[in-house]
């Protein structure tokens, strides 16, 4: 059973519920997503995934692809927020991330994941807390329930009490709000095939929604 406390910092960092798509988006062939004027292509994702597949037999390419989109979006958004707020981000720990993910240290996906983890931690440490709402708790539980699959998840009230007692959660939600505002400001558009975005540091995948529009892929 996924642990609701494990990975709560980054899990809730990207709990952005209440999606409102921003129109049809920009139509470009082979585009995975935009962050502002920065474009990431399907080819770039192919290269990131192929690098891991070649080095780690038996990995799920589809899962890797989703992880690549999530990591790139979060790293880039987080860096922009950190720069805007003059937050110092520590050096990414590539070796530790490689060990946790069981992937090569020099692989692009490993490095991007380590970088967004560093940014997320720095933002949580420097952001003021906000009120944790029932909607926040319910959103986390719904994703935990889906991720559990055939495994049994603890009842909602029990998980909710665990989450509400976590002293870090209010600050993480504060970072979430910053990311939503910045996503709206710069324009984040994702190919519908990657929606809803989810991210996990450990076992808790959570949807990334608010502030995300859609890009039309005409390939």
Automatic annotation (TrEMBL):
Q: Which domain of life is it from?
A: Bacteria
Q: Which PROSITE patterns match?
A: PROKAR_LIPOPROTEIN
- Name the record gives this protein: Lipoprotein
Q: Which organism is it from?
A: Virgisporangium aurantiacum
